[in-house]
Amino acid sequence: MSARRLKLILIFAVLGASSLALLAWTQVWVQAEVGLPDAGTQVLQIDGTIAAPALTALALSGFALAAALTIAGRLIRIVLGALEVLLGFSVFLAAFLAVQDPADASAAAVTAATGIAGHESIQLSVLGTVVTPWPYVAMSAAIVMAGVGVAVIVTSGRWPGPTRKYQAVRFEQVASPDGAQPLATPAKTAAGDSVGDWDDLSRGDDPTAR
Length: 210
Description:
Elements: H1 3-25, E1 28-35, E2 41-47, H2 48-51, H3 55-69, H4 74-100, H5 102-105, H6 107-114, H7 119-125, E3 126-131, H8 134-155, E4 171-174, E5 183-186, H9 194-202
Antiparallel strand pairs: 1-2, 1-3, 4-5
Helix pairs in contact: 1-3, 1-8, 3-4, 4-8
């Protein structure tokens, strides 16, 4: 696999996993049957915004990280890969805690519906819960995020560097035709890599004419 293709695959994997986590966050995670004072029972639909409110910030951080990977150098890629692993762990933990204690994950909605507050009181008022597949989807996305982060760290040295259009231009002094003050002109550099040649072709320039 070429270095450029590897880079694109990993960046799109970061975007895909973050999108999946964000999608899961918007769905119903828990169906909680709650006993209402003097009013029987009610089934509350608890979505990810209540069960795991931090998930949106974590998923959006993944989008920002993917954008940074497109221009990062090797050392920064390693740091970003480590951050992606940390994001994956955080997303997994948020979803796992909701699955482990769905009544506690429903606390905000239960308080809004019944006025009951306090951990023990909420646990008593929740008569039963059903966990939907969506928190497990979020955990799956988290595992992918962590795996991609590791892959970024391991393969960071194979990624292509920035193309010529992002490189600094070195100037050299060239005497002007009338003998006046020398002119500063861009110095000729060695032939670019294949990525730079493709950039030249896209602009309508012939890379073989250098």
